[in-house]
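Trying the structure run again after the queue cleared.
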Amino acid sequence: MSVIQKIKNIVSGDRPSVSLEDRELLEWLGITPSSRKAVAEVTYYTCLKMLSETIGKLPLKYYRQTERGRIRAAPTEAGILMTVRPNPFMTPTTMWTTVEQNCQHYGNGYIWVRTQFTPSSYGGEYHFLDMWPMQSHCVTPVMDDIGIFGGAGKLYYQYNDPRTGKQYMFRNSEVLHFKTWYSFDGFMGEPVRNILKATVDGSNESQDYMNRLYKQGLTASMAMQYTGDLEDEKVRKLKRKFADMLSGPKNAGKVVPVPMGLTLTPLNMSLTDAQFFELRKYSALQIAGAFGIKPNQINNYEKSSYANSETQQLAFLVDTMSYRLKNYEEEINGKILLPQEIENQNFYKFNEKAILRTDSKTQMENLAKAVNNGIYTANEAREYMDMPAEEGGDQLMVNGNYIPITKIGQQYKGGEGNGNS
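Done. Tokens:
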């Protein structure tokens, strides 16, 4: 179908919307679309995978703050959904991974929390039924300034289901909204790919160049020199003939006969002289840095050692994931906790220690030190190792030779008094 016919269909209503994937139409309108998606760029994909999987692998815990400190609280309906089965088709790992991937790629991630109100003589109560991640590009936040939906100044979320074509409107309290740090209004986040569009597109173009080079059998382009004047059609036939005989892996090392008076001169372009790989590596580090991903996490081990990689993993938790986890925890605690839970000082928290586990020897040494110095009970250490509790293991133990710092020296005074009497 021609571009003109497509535009006529849009105007007449035969085609109600313009597809952003229609490359011919976009180019006719003066819009130059990217030849490849950002996800096709390997560094971008790796960063997206790293952040999404990290959120997915961290267990979500439910605690209560007491006078004695933080203790594990009894699970609730919402807690069971977020830690066992959010809906019939997903695990919690899948749900959190999907939300973070949408958040990083589109700037915002959404979860619809479906609830049901059960009336009673005391007013009734809400029950959590299930949770569903929504595709971010199908969600539109709507601020009701004049009270069209029954409340002026309230925020709603419009969701266009791509599978059924139906449209839904959810209240702010029904949607968990997670966003990136890059937001000037505090409502909507911006994705990294919008900020680094030129860098990601440039990296995609360099990959396209390498793909074309491989398809040509790593042979350079050539200049064809001939004597006299040839018609354009004959020139095209010559170009096509030698292109078929010289390009591609199957023609590597092949001897090609050249007619007298015709010369083929390779146009050598050295990747080393052009610093091609150095530039690609620099672009990869720029993309990773924008996501907060460390060099060793994108397989750049040039300046890494075992200790250095472990330090980078800790820096990744502190510099990158601590903000993301705090963002998630605040949104979950702000919309999932019921008034009674807030009054009891209950809260949800991700266990970030799951990505800091060391080798078994170091782990056992750390647990032994914690138990011997009264930080962990034996049963707490056993729980950390996924072992059952034992009788008598809930007592804190310390070395009997330890004394409070305020009583240092008093043990000698008693002995001196007995000796003088």
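The radius of gyration is 32 Å. Worth checking whether this holds up in the mutant runs.
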